[in-house]
From TrEMBL:
It comes from Phoxinus phoxinus (Eurasian minnow). This is Uncharacterized protein. The lineage of its organism: Eukaryota, Metazoa, Chordata, Craniata, Vertebrata.
Length: 99
């Protein structure tokens, strides 16, 4: 039968953003231990994990919602791209490779 024995390619894992380097590694604790917080105590790493968890919860709660009037204001600005990037940053989004 089709589908039996096949592994799903969809993963429901949430990738947390590293608050130090702003990357989204597969496992934040492992990333912190081997890269951004190498040599730090386990307590410091756990504190950083709690902070990242709070940021993700805040993004999930508020980052998905936009007020229509705010979008109109952004597009009416003298430099709408800069205004949009600023608003996205305020909401917790990360925009990379900005020239």
């Amino acid at each position: 039968m089709e589908g039996q024995g096949e592994k799903s390619t969809f993963h429901s894992r949430i990738y947390f953003l590293c608050p130090l380097c702003r990357k989204a590694p597969r496992t934040l604790p492992g990333h912190l231990r081997t890269s951004c917080m190498e040599g730090r105590t386990e307590e410091e790493i756990q504190t950083t994990m709690i902070q990242a968890n709070k940021e993700m919860a805040e993004l999930s709660h508020t980052g998905r919602f936009w007020e229509y009037q705010r979008i109109r204001e952004i597009f009416a600005a003298a430099d709408p791209l800069a205004s949009m990037l600023e608003e996205m940053e305020k909401k917790g989004f990360v925009v990379r490779n900005i020239p």
